C-alpha cells in the first residue's frame, strides 16, 4: 500500500491524489486502503452505520494523447441497518471500475452533442472523460464514487423473514390492496 499524508476533507473523505506527470506509459498498479478516519468519513457521506474496510487495486495508465485511464477493483465491508429488523448487519460490496481523465483544455472534454441549446445524450454511447486540474487525479475519490454506486439502499438480513401476509404473491395480485382490508386483518388478529 502506498503511503500518503493529507488533511482530512469531509466532502472527500477518502483521498489519494496522484500526479498525472508521474504516470508512465507502462501501466502501474497501486493498492490503497481507507484508514479509520477515512472510513468514518465515508460512513457519514454514504449515510450508513460504518465502513469496516475499503481497499482497492487501481491500475493507472496513459490514455489517448494526454489522458489517464484509471481502472481497478474494490472491496468493502460495511455495516448497514436491515430494512426489515432495523438491526445492524454486515454487507460486502465489490466491483470493477474504469474511468478516463483528460486535462480541462483537451478536445476530448468538450461536448459536441449540443444542438439548439439542448444536450443530446446517447445512453449507449461512450461516456465523456472526466477532467483533472493542476495535474492531479484523486483516485481515492474515484474509488469512493464507484463504491457508493453499488451500496444496497435497502439492505436486508437474509436470516430475517417477512410474514407471509406481507409478502408479494402472484402477478395477478398486482393491483393495490385496499388499505381498509389490511386494517381489518390487523383488527381480526388483535381480537
The sequence of SSEs as H and E is EEHEEEEEEEHH
Describe the biggest sheet?
Answer: 5 strands, mixed
Number of helices: 3
Return the structural class: alpha+beta
Number of domains: 1
* Average of pLDDT: 82
Gyration radius, rounded: 23 Å
Strand order of the largest sheet: 2-3-4-5-8
Instruction: Estimate the strand proportion.
Output: 25-35%
What is the tally of beta strands?
9
Shape: elongated
Q: Terminal Cα separation, in Å?
A: 63 Å
Give the % helix: 10-25%
Contiguous runs where pLDDT drops below 50 for at least 5 residues: 1-5
Short description:
The chain has 191 residues and is an alpha+beta fold. The protein has three helices and nine strands.
Topology overview:
Elements: E1 17-19, E2 28-33, H1 36-46, E3 50-63, E4 67-81, E5 88-103, E6 114-115, E7 118-119, E8 130-132, E9 136-138, H2 139-149, H3 179-190
Parallel strand pairs: 5-8
Antiparallel strand pairs: 1-9, 2-3, 3-4, 4-5, 6-7
Structure overview:
With 191 residues, this protein is an alpha+beta fold. It has one domain (17-163). Helix content is 18%, strand content 34%. The protein has helices at residues 36-46, 139-149, 179-190, and strands at residues 17-19, 28-33, 50-63, 67-81, 88-103, 114-115, 118-119, 130-132, 136-138. The chain has a five-stranded mixed β-sheet, covered by helices on one side. The protein has a two-stranded antiparallel ribbon with strand order 1-9. A hairpin with a 3-residue loop joins strand 3 and strand 4. The radius of gyration is 23 Å and the shape is elongated.
Amino acid at each position: 500500500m502506498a503511503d500518503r499524508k493529507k488533511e482530512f476533507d469531509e466532502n472527500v473523505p477518502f483521498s489519494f491524489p496522484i500526479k498525472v506527470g508521474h504516470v508512465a506509459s507502462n501501466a502501474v498498479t497501486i493498492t490503497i486502503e481507507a484508514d479509520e478516519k477515512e472510513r468514518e468519513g465515508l460512513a457519514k457521506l454514504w449515510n450508513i452505520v460504518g465502513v469496516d474496510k475499503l481497499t482497492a487495486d487501481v491500475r493507472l495508465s496513459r490514455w489517448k494523447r494526454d489522458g489517464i485511464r484509471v481502472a481497478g477493483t474494490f472491496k468493502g465491508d460495511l455495516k448497514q441497518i436491515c430494512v426489515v429488523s432495523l438491526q445492524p448487519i454486515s454487507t460486502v460490496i465489490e466491483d470493477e471500475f474504469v474511468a478516463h481523465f483528460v486535462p480541462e483544455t483537451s478536445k476530448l472534454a468538450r461536448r459536441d452533442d449540443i444542438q439548439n441549446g439542448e444536450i443530446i445524450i446517447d445512453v449507449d454511447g461512450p461516456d465523456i472523460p472526466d477532467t483533472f486540474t493542476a495535474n492531479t487525479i484523486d483516485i481515492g475519490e474515484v474509488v469512493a464514487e464507484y463504491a457508493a454506486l453499488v451500496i444496497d439502499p435497502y439492505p436486508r438480513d437474509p436470516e430475517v423473514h417477512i410474514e407471509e401476509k406481507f409478502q408479494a404473491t402472484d402477478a395477478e395480485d398486482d393491483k393495490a390492496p385496499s388499505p381498509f382490508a389490511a386494517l381489518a386483518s390487523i383488527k381480526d388478529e388483535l381480537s
